[in-house]
Amino acid sequence: MKKTKFDKLTSKYQKSLLKSLEEFVSIDSSYDPNTVNETNPFGAGVSDALNYITNLARSDGFEVTNYDNKIVEILYGKGNKNLTIMAHADVVPAGDGWIDPPFKMVEKKGVLYGRGVSDDKGPLLATYYALKALRDEGLLGGYEIRFLVGGNEESGSLCMHHYFDFLKKKQPTLGFSPDSDFPLIYAEKGITNFTVKAKVEVPGLISIKGGTASNAVIDKCELKIDLNLDFLKFIMERYHRHEAEIRTVDDVTTVTFFGKAAHGSTPEKGVNAGMMALKSIAEFSKNESLLRLAKLYEPLDGKGYGCSATNKEMGHNSSNMGLISYKDGFIELTINFRYINSCDYKELVTAIKEANKGFEVKLGENNPVLFYPMDSVLIKTLLKAYQEETGDLKSKPLAIGGGTYAKCADNVVAFGMQFPGFDSLMHSPGEMTKKEDLFKAMSIYAKAIYELGEVLKK
What we know:
single chain, Aminopeptidase, Alpha-Beta Plaits, 2 domains, eight-stranded antiparallel sheet, six-stranded mixed sheet, 11 helices, 27% strand
């Protein structure tokens, strides 16, 4: 395809984009409870990442405010109307299974690898340099642009709640979040987390620990138990060596289960090592509570606890056990549940509580379904920008299970930057993006910002 005006406009920023991304990826900005304090509300690494963006934008001449190491606001222009871009600097924990160091960007045959290159540091910087290119060429004006960089998207989006609810900042007139797929996302499933806790007596069981985030499929889970030859035989008969590793030290056996990581919105793409551990100890011990929990939470559509549903617009509900732990006679599971627009949240809650009678259930915050009409100005403008920059007229807007910042504000949808047909392995080992996709996304975002600005001027 012939290079567009915005390809040419942004091409001079490609080297800067790659340099910044390399530096940005080197910061482990996953939530770290061990370094959380008043200065670092989401941990020291997240603060470092937010400060990196603060310093970058200030050095480029933007007006920048870091609000309490929770969210960074980059401003340009004045006006009663605003164009708001929402991206995040935090990442999910690296986890195991990487070939190359997760916090060192590596390029192989035109593909960039590293935690955050696709979610969301790469898209964030592609959008930032698109904005900078437009500003440098004098193509902005007549409205305010806000580029918001949050530090808690992967763990509840408390950053955006701080900005809009605590600081009382005005809502977007129009906006987008570069944190999902192209062409764009017109609908997002509702999301809620809940924990289930049960008292369980299993002779010899010491601990179970698996998962790093509720919104990711558990790829590794450790089970510790007093040495039991029958249990070892049970494991060896059911699992291959690449699925379960057995070590015994001082009469304590550790069984490490290996699954396959995936985003919590698509649990069917992964293999849950936590469920492997739960089912193994449940079936070996024949403990009724464990057997019941496995039956409730093994189905990936919520059917186990009476919450499955499907429709043509948004697909089906999904259920992911993202965290599992056993200690001192209590087992606790954290479930990441996503539901379509035909479901009633109150009815789902009733079903969850009914299915878990006898267990302790704690419900987390509910993020309701997001749905934008296809004929809305925002959808039409963004879709046109994507189509004109790529020539792709076949790919259709998507409804997804993933939750983005679009749910935290008015008049915002997720817009790129994963291209159709490419799996970036976000939330998984080996997260990647194509360098050419990163550059093309920069031109798409420049076009989108410009066109949305033209809408705001009218």
